[in-house]
């Protein structure tokens, strides 16, 4: 089996992101691989035609992107990865993660997943979509509460 050379770590803004980044950093170190971080902000629906959903100001999306950039900077710095490329994108989580992985030529995507019951929720919607949408390896790091 060939060593990994380019690893993409896809994280949300949860405290568990540090656990996912640490696992990916360990793999990158063992394989001498380059590491990159990505977070995707899903676009907000601002169409007032949805009666039950009030229109949201455009500034909200900008704030979400700024918060994500700051979060990635902080967790990368805390993990000693100040020079690690970081990307915040707006769009479909699955589509943007897969697109960025393709642009970088990644051979491994690391993503977190919560252990839940049932086949459909085993990996979580995002992790499952990534797993079935890419040709490269995917490592799902189990985060959150673990059952005894």
Please describe what this structure looks like:
- The relative contact order is 0.22.
- α3 packs across α4.
- The model is unreliable at 116-122 (pLDDT under 50).
- The protein is an alpha/beta fold and 148 residues long.
- It has a single domain (6-143), classed as Rossmann fold (3-Layer(aba) Sandwich), CATH 3.40.50.620.
- Strands 3-2-1-4-5 form a five-stranded parallel beta sheet, with helices on both faces.
- The longest helix is centred in the middle third of the chain and has 21 residues, at 58-78.
- Helix content is 39%, strand content 22%.
- The protein is globular.
- It is built from four helices and five strands.
- The chain has helices spanning 17-31, 58-78, 93-104, 125-133; strands at residues 6-10, 34-41, 86-90, 108-114, 137-143.
Kindly report the CATH topology. Answer: Rossmann fold
N-end to C-end Cα span: 33 Å
CATH H-level superfamily: HUPs
> Spans with pLDDT under 50 lasting ≥5 residues?
116-122
Give the oligomeric state of the chains in this entry, treating copies of one chain as homo and distinct chains as hetero. single chain
Which percent range describes the beta-strand content?
A: 15-25%
């Amino acid at each position: 089996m060939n060593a990994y050379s380019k690893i993409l770590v896809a994280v949300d803004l949860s405290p568990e992101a540090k656990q996912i980044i640490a696992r990916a950093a360990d793999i990158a170190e063992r394989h001498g691989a380059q590491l990159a971080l990505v977070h995707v902000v899903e676009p907000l629906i601002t169409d007032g035609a949805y009666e039950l959903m009030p229109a949201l100001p455009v500034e909200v999306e900008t704030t979400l992107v700024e918060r994500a950039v700051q979060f990635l900077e902080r967790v990368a710095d805390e993990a000693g990865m100040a020079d690690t490329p970081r990307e915040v994108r707006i769009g479909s989580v699955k589509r943007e993660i897969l697109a960025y992985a393709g642009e970088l030529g990644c051979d491994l995507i690391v993503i977190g997943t919560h252990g839940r019951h049932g086949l459909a929720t085993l990996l979580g919607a995002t992790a499952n979509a990534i797993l079935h949408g890419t040709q490269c390896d995917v490592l799902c790091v189990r985060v959150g509460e673990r059952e005894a």
